[in-house]
Amino acid sequence: MKRKFWNWIKNETEGTRTLFLTGEISDETWWGDEVTPKIFKDELMSGSGDITLWINSPGGDVFAASQIYNMLMEYSGNVTVKIDSLVASAASVIAMAGTEVLMSPTSLMMIHNPLTVAIGDTEEMQKAIAMLEEVKESIINAYELKTGLRRSKISQLMDAETWLNAKKAVELGFADGILYDKTESNTEPEAMMFSRRAVTNSLLNKLKKPLKGTPYSELEKRLNLLK
Fold first, then answer.
1. Looking at residue 13, what is its pLDDT?
2. For residue 130, with 0-12 CB atoms within 10 Å meaning exposed, 13-18 middle and 19 or more buried, which class applies?
């Protein structure tokens, strides 16, 4: 029996629907728990009215996510996206289709550069690099439409594999609000943003600095002796 970790709930009295989209985004179903464009479209078009879309997904196939994004953008009703835990990678592209995007105060959004696996000679590798660059530009298109940020800024965030908590996502425009937040204004310090590249560079810079007056060249000699 196939498992399906996503389903629709219809509110008959209000004429609205709620969709729970949980799991990896895939172009086809392997185990029965993936979110695929074909099944999604069939269920999306089976009803009408405004939709509340709850997302909890680590991401997956960017082309499948692009199809789902387009379906939601073309949908006639309003789509309120609610992120309850994690919306990462390709799943964040789907979230950008929301008429309104709301994040749980405990949720995270992650954006990064597209990834692939390539096998072949130099020419094949160059083709793969060119393809990834174009895919990145297509993802930036969706982020730019939602956030209004400069493309160069979005590119830098993707390069760094950036993790955003709810407040930072709202601050940058990736989300419109925070669920359950009753405050009308935010007077607290700037929200957290985690960048894997920033942490790595910070660590490397610290390693290059002299430690307690010991020259870096001397430390390097000692490390070589330990080897």
1. 57
2. exposed
- In this prediction the pTM is 0.77
Cα distances from 151 to residues 96, 111, 158, 162, 214, in angstroms, run: 15, 14, 11, 15, 43
Residue 39 has pLDDT above 90, yes or no: no
Domains and CATH numbers, the chain: 7-191 (3.90.226.10)
Q: Which of 96, 97, 98, 22 is nearest to 60 (CA)?
A: 22
E strand spans, the chain: 7-11, 16-22, 51-57, 79-88, 100-103, 108-111, 162-165, 177-178, 193-195
Q: Which amino acid is at 36?
A: T
CA distances from 194 to 51, 76, 103, 167, 169 (A): 31, 36, 17, 12, 11
Q: pLDDT, tens digit, for every residue of 161-208?
A: 999 999 999 999 999 999 998 875 444 444 556 666 665 665 555 545
CB within 8 Å of 161: residues ≥ 6 apart: 110, 111, 112, 113, 195, 196, 197
SS3 (DSSP) at 14: coil
